[in-house]
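pinned: reference chain
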Amino acid sequence: MKIKKLSAGDFIEARCTRCREVLNHTIVAMVGEQVVRVECNTCHGMHNYHGEKKTREPASTVSVRKAAPTPRRGRKDPGAADREEWWALRLTMAAEKEVPYVMNLRFKEKTLISHPVFGLGVVMHVIPPNKMEVLFQDGKKLLRCA
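pinned: its structure tokens
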């Protein structure tokens, strides 16, 4: 029995991504001897060819001893350092020195500002030409300034 090599224009069975069934398809594109793109003969939808799923071989009867897994470490909270820094700075904040936040004002570093949504914050860095990084209780925020 002779097996025919596949080429563009031949028919092949494949799972249609639109019809969601295994149907006849026409081969549209190939790379080497691999089918890459097909067209469904039922709905005429073109999609990548997904070959048959390979079945897994059952695990061998010989047991291989695996090393004991290392215990998982919990993720570090990315905002924890910011909150600690804010609480440390909070002790030095004087409520009477706070400046209300207005987008069109120019601020200096270490200025205490009062934001209507985020609350009290400290200007950490001024980023030219018109931005500043402010440390609030919830974390650092990038705000516009003059």
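why pinned: Strands lie at 11-15, 22-31, 34-40, 46-48, 99-100, 112-115, 119-127, 131-136, 139-144. The chain has a mean pLDDT of 84.
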